[in-house]
Amino acid sequence: MSAQAPSRTDLLLAIADDELVLGWRNSEWTGIAPFLEEDVAFSSIAQGEIGHARAFYELAATELGTTADALAFDRRPDEYRCAPLVELRFVPDWARTIARHYLYETADAIRIAGVKESEWDELAGLAAKVEREEVYHLMHAQMWADRLAASTDGRRHFDEAVTELWPYALGLLEGEERERLAETVGREPVDAVERGAHTDELVPLWDEMTMVRRSAPGAEW
Amino acid sequence: MIYEVFRQEREGQPLQHGGSLEAPNAAFAEAYAREFYGRRNESTTLWIIPRDAVAEVEEPYVADVFDRDYRRVDGYSIKVKLKEARERAGALAD
């Protein structure tokens, strides 16, 4: 492994873990979203995120000499590199779910645009592919943000949720990308809830997420 | 609001009714239509039309009071004529 390998796989795992865990949290709405059409659409977005996670894990796996499944499910909770934002469980709070969705997709668009410029060709190519789908996730998030903002009650719930999650959202990005996020969202930068430490909500989630795989260690599925 | 979705599978083909969906406004309807009918590249064109905008034509036939079947193509049974022609041709060949 080359000297720069750890940092570039760290970046990959951060993205992959964010996408997997957020996909997992969003999928908790399957069957209980506010109405059927949204149930289908939001579940599909959740699945899209997990698909992106898989692609990023696969690239990391070739670098680390392991498999995507092992990276996704065989690590201990403290080895995950996801940002605290994606760990939070919001069911049945739709306003906070949409606030996170909006903040995450906005930040992710900034991050993916940066990764597309990577000198690592495979990663740049993957980012370009992922971006084509993420455009629709962002449109969906924006559409909901507009919808909530259109009513007094909706706007209040949504704004409160964005204010609460704003320090978490900044933790998704590094350096000047944070300023770009602040500009896009129209908020002042504050102290971020940084990636690295985890919330109390990760362990129960990890427990459920890896339960089946741990029930038969080493099994061929 | 209910929207009717029309989809075209391949370029050059006619648009066909795909189904309907419920959405609070046109932006949502567009997102849902894309998700339901475009996710697997199964459509090249999608139209979404509010159901209210569709005017249904009542009794959609032109009054046909006189018996003028002969004016319609289906007034003739080409099958029988073909059979007869074949038989004639067969008889000649013998």
Description:
The complex is a heterodimer of chains A (221) and B (94). By secondary structure, chain A is mostly helical. Chain A is built from ten helices and no strands. In chain A, helix 1 (5-27) packs antiparallel against helix 2, helix 5 (94-115) packs antiparallel against helix 6 (121-149) and helix 5 packs across helix 8 (176-185). Chain A is globular. Chain A starts with a helix and ends in a 6-residue tail after the last helix. Mean pLDDT of chain A is 95; it is low at 1-6. The longest helix of chain B is centred in the C-terminal third of the chain and has 16 residues, at 78-93. With 94 residues, chain B is of the alpha+beta class. Helix content of chain B is 30%, strand content 21%. Chain B has a domain at 2-53: Roll (Ubiquitin-like (UB roll)). Chain B has a three-stranded antiparallel sheet with strand order 2-1-3, covered by helices on one side. The A-B interface holds A 35-38, 40-41, 44, 136, 139-140, 143, 146-147 and B 21-25, 27-28, 31-32, 34-36, 39.
Secondary structure blueprint with pairings:
The complex is a heterodimer of chains A (221) and B (94).
Chain A: H1 5-27, H2 36-64, H3 68-73, H4 84-87, H5 94-115, H6 121-149, H7 152-170, H8 176-185, H9 202-209, H10 211-215
Helix pairs in contact in A: 1-2, 2-6, 5-6, 5-7, 5-8, 6-7
Chain B: E1 2-8, E2 16-22, H1 26-37, E3 45-50, H2 78-93
Antiparallel strand pairs in B: 1-2, 1-3
Name the strands of the widest sheet of chain B in spatial order: 2-1-3
Give the proportion of residues in helices of chain A: over 70%
Net shape of chain B: elongated
**End-to-end distance of chain B:** 70 Å
Under the CATH scheme, which architecture of the domain at 2-53 in chain B would be assigned?
Roll
Compute the CA-based radius of gyration of chain A: 17 Å
β content of chain B, as a range? 15-25%
DSSP helical segment count of chain B = 2
Q: Which stretches of chain B are low in confidence, meaning pLDDT under 50 for 5 or more residues running?
A: none
Q: Tell me the number of helical segments of chain A per DSSP (H or I, 4 or more residues long).
A: 10
CATH class of the domain at 2-53 in chain B: Alpha Beta
According to CATH, the homologous superfamily of the domain at 2-53 in chain B is Phenylacetic acid degradation B
Q: What share of residues of chain B is helical?
A: 25-40%
Q: Please provide the ordered H/E string of secondary-structure elements of chain A.
A: HHHHHHHHHH
Helix and strand composition category of chain B:
alpha+beta
